[in-house]
Amino acid sequence: MEMEKKSLPHSKVEAMAATSDEEITSVDWRGRPSNHGGMKAAVFVLGLQSFEIMAIAAVGNNLITYVINEMHFPLSKSANIVTNFIGTIFLVSLFGGYLSDSYLGSFWTMLIFGFIELSGFILLAVQAHAPQLKPPKCNIMQEQSLCDEAKGIKAMIFFVALYLVALGSGCVKPNMIAHGADQFMIKGNAEQSKKLSTYFNLAYLAFSIGELVALTVLVWVQTHSGMDIGFGISACVMGLGLITLVFGTPYYRNKRPQGSIFTPIVQVFVAAFVKRKQKRTTTKSLSFSDNSHGLLPTNRFRFLDKASIKAEGVNQEYEGSWRLCTITQVEQVKILISLLPIFACTIVFNTILAQLQTFSVQQGAQMNTKLSKHFNVPPASLQAIPYILLLVLVPLYDKVFVPFARKITGHESGISPLQRIGCGLFTATFSMVAAAIMERKRRDSAVHLNEKLSIFWITPQFLIFGVSEMLTAVGLIEFFYKQPLKGMQAFSTAITYCSYSFGFYLSSVLVSVVNKITSSTGSSKTGGWLSENDLNMDRLDLFYWVLAGLSFINFFNYLFWAHWHSYNPSMFQKLVSPVDLSHNGV
Asked: What's the pTM?
C-alpha cells in the first residue's frame, strides 16, 4: 500500500493532500455531513460567476468613457481612476478569502458581499440618472472646452458607489471559484477529482460568456441609451446572479470555517524565532502530531524547521502551540512562501491587461467605428472579440487538447498548471508588440494623412491577449487552489486575484513614471508620452514597446522561479512515520 502511495504522480498526491479532511469539514445547508456536490451543484456557482462578471465588466470596461465624458476628469487621471478601482477589487479579494476560510464560509461571504456590490450598482445608476448629482454637460475632448471636474459631494457619491462595487466584487470573486471547486473535492472519488480541471475551464468559459454579453449588449445599451440605464441593467443582472446562487443551496457541499487562518502561520514564525538557537538532534525531536496532510520536511526555508523541534526534557503539552508547531503546519507556511515568486511573475501580465481596458479603448475612440451606415462599434466592445474566439477555444482545449496531452504527460490537466502559466506569459508579450505596431500605424494615418483607420485594425492585440489570459489565469487559479493548504482554498485563490490588483496599480505607477521621465528628457513636444487628452499628440506606441520589453524579461524571470518551485520532490509526498523519515535520511 505504501508503495502505491509513493508511485502516485504529484498531481494525484496533491489532490489527495488537499482533500484529506473534506468528509469532516463539508456539510450541507443544514450543517449535516454532506454527500452532495458535483457538477449539479457547481452549475449554480457558474451561473453566479457569469452574471457577476457580466455586471462588473459592463461597468469596468466602459468606465473610462463615463469618467471622462460625465465626471470630466482628464485622460491620465481617468485611466488611473479605472486602474485603481479594478486594482482595489482584486486586493479586497484577500479580505474576502480570509473571511470565508476563517469565519463565514464561501456561501455566506458571496451572499453578503453580493448585496453590497448590488447596492453600489444602484447608487451608480441613481447618480448617472440625476443631473444634479453630476457636473454640467460638456465636451471635454474639444480643445476650447473648460469643463467642470466632479468635486465635493458629486465626487464623493461617485467614489462611494464605485468602491461599494469594488468591496462587494472583491469579496465575491475568490469565493465563486473556491466554492465551485469545493463541489469536486470529494475524498476517495477519483472521478470527481479528475473533473476539477474541467471545472476550472468551465469557470473561464462562464467568465467569457459574461464578458461577451457585457461588452456587446450592455456596452451598446450604455452608449445608446445612457450610462444610467447601463448601470441599472448591471444592478438587475447582479440580482439575478444572487438568485441563482440561492437556488443552488440544497445541492452545495459547504466547507466549515476553520477559525483564523493566519493564527497557525503566525505561530510558526513565533515558534521559529523563539527556538532560533535550538538544534535538531534526531528525527524524534520533531513534532509529528496532526499529520492529516502529512507533508515531509523540505530543505527550503530551514530556519522555519526550528518551530517543530521539541525542547528536550519538556512536555509537549506544556510547550503549547506558540512554541511547538507540527511539521505539517511548518510545511504549509513554506508552501505559502514558495508561491510568492510565481504570483509576482504574473503582475506584469496584468499590467498589460490594464492597458486593454484603458488606453486601448481610447485608441478605438479615435478610429473609424462605423460597421455600417446605421451602426457604430462602441470602442469598449472591442474587448469582446477575444471572448468570441474563446467560446470555441475553451471547449476545444478541454475536450481535445487535455485528453490528448494527458495520454502523453499522464497529468490530469494535460499539462501542469506551471507549464500553462508559462505559455500564457510568453504569448502576452506579442499582444503589446501588436498594440505598438498598430498604434504607430493609427497615429501616422491620423496625423500625416488625416485619415481614420478602421477600429478593427487593433483587434490583434485583444485576440492575442485573450489566448494568453485563458492559459495564464486558469493555470494560476488551478495551481494555487490545488496546493495542500488546509482550509485555505478561498484565500489561496484570492492571492491569484491580487496579481490583478498589483498589475493595475503598477500600470498607474508606470503611466506616472513614464510621463515624468519623458517630460524631463524632452522626448515629446508636448511633454510626456501620455500627458495629453489626445492620443494623436501622445506617444502611446512607445509606451506599448516598454511594456512588451518588460513582459519579455518577465517571462525569463518566470522560467527561473517555475524551475525553482518544481525542483522539490518531497513537497507533496505523504508522511508515514518518524521511522520512514529516518530511512529517507531526513
From this structure: 0.77
